[in-house]
Amino acid sequence: MDLSKSSRNSIIPSYLYSFSSQKSSSLDAPTPTATAFNGAAATAAAAAASSSAPRSRSFVVPSPSEPFGKIELYSPAFYAACTAGGILSCGLTHMTVTPLDLVKCNMQIDPAKYKSISSGFGVLLKEQGARGFFRGWVPTLLGYSAQGACKFGFYEFFKKYYSDIAGPEYSAKYKTLIYLAGSASAEVIADIALCPFEAVKVRVQTQPGFARGLSDGLPKFVKSEGALGLYKGIVPLWGRQIPYTMMKFASFETIVEMFYKYAIPTPKDQCSKSLQLGVSFAGGYVAGVLCAIVSHPADNLVSFLNNAKGATVGDAVKKLGLLGLFTRGLPLRIVMIGTLTGAQWGIYDAFKVFVGLPTTGGVAPVAAIEPAKA
Asked: Which segments carry the Solcar repeats (predicted)?
């Protein structure tokens, strides 16, 4: 079989994932003597040919431990695994940083009272006690679990979908555009799932006495604002989350590829799983810092609009000011989002490894589609 032709015609761009492959140099080497062709050699050749045939028909991820067997890439089981990994990575991490999110939202809404990170924690502790630091954790957990399911699951779907449209050559050549388009498409859906929970969360966290949590906060919000009021912040949420997610996925994929290309001398498929997960966390942290900077103005708008009834974007800009829109609460958000994003990629890839899938990113695409040299 012509391996270069097979690579070019593959419907799954091989740069999306890397795998450990068995080398077949023994099959390519010349035989010691021309007369050594016997029954055993013929049997071995037939076995080698039969073992290579299925590789052109199916694309199965080899699992080191195989707790659930092998999962075929882009099968329903693959997307289910990515969805489950997204639920764990986003829901758990956002719930964990609820105290930081609480202080950040209050700094955005009432800067006169919450003047800094340290004083903000002090005010919350004095007024609400230690339990107040986790106010709004239920809508945070449920909302970002739903968002994570859609974000990661649909990202994998759209990344494959757009790669198929572009074809192996162009999807490798314009891989960053594939990452950007796939993540943006996924986030549009993810924010529809997140928006109602985010609206209730902000109101619970920034208006003491409004509600204890989701169970009483949701009906009270709907009674006050109407059902459509839950989606009042959808456009600013898209404005915050779509650039955030595009940066999160595209920069992560690029950073991880650069790690394996320039910083780690060993090919990815020969690195230990612990090292690969460490790279995922480091790449995610750097990507998270970039995400926080890009999406912060819209984050301020979301907090402002969900806190004040009948507020508009113009009201937010007038009150916060253009500089405040870009800087208010930014240092805290950089710490929060950097840690959050690093942890998310670490958890997501750890779950993928657990079910037998490879970690995300890390393969330079050019060599993957380059014709084999004679």
From this structure: 77-161, 174-258, 275-354
Compute φ and ψ for 226, nearest 5 degrees.
85, 160
Q: pLDDT digits over 57-67, tens only?
A: 444 444 344 44
By C-alpha distance, which of 135, 113, 136 is closest to 123? 113
- Closest among 159, 219, 158, 154 to 193, alpha carbons compared: 154
Q: Which residues of 221-250 are buried (b: 16+ CB within 10 A; e: fewer)?
A: bbeebeeebbebbbbbbbbbbbbbbbbbbb
Rounded CA-CA distance 269/18 in Å is 7
Contact 254/174 with Cβ under 8 angstroms? no
Instruction: Read off the DSSP letter of residue 231.
Output: G
pLDDT at 317: 80
C-alpha distance from residue 190 to each of 86, 119, 267, 311, 312 (Å): 11, 34, 34, 24, 23
CB 89 within 8 A of CB 356: no
Per-residue b/e over 40-58, b at no fewer than 16 CB within 10 Å? eeeeeeeeeeeeeeeeeee
Cα 41 from Cα 24, distance rounded (Å): 15
Answer for the pair 241, 183: CB distance below 8 angstroms, yes or no: no
Domains of the chain: 71-367 (1.50.40.10)
Q: Over the stretch 250-275, which tens digit does the pLDDT of each residue have? A: 999 999 999 999 999 888 989 999 99
Chain centre distance of CA 76: 19
Mean pLDDT of 78-83: 96
86 closest CA partner among 137, 19, 157: 157
Amino acid at 313: V
The amino acid occupying position 80 is A
Q: Largest Cα–Cα distance in the chain?
A: 91
Quote the pTM value: 0.73
Token digits of residue 19: 């795998």
Give the 3-state secondary structure percentages of the chain, helix then strand then coil, rounded to 5. 75, 0, 25
Q: Which amino acid is at 127?
A: E
H/E element, 339: helix 330-354
Q: Please say whether the beta carbons of 133 and 211 come within 8 A.
A: no
Q: Rounded to whole angstroms, how far apart are CA atoms 183 and 155?
A: 5
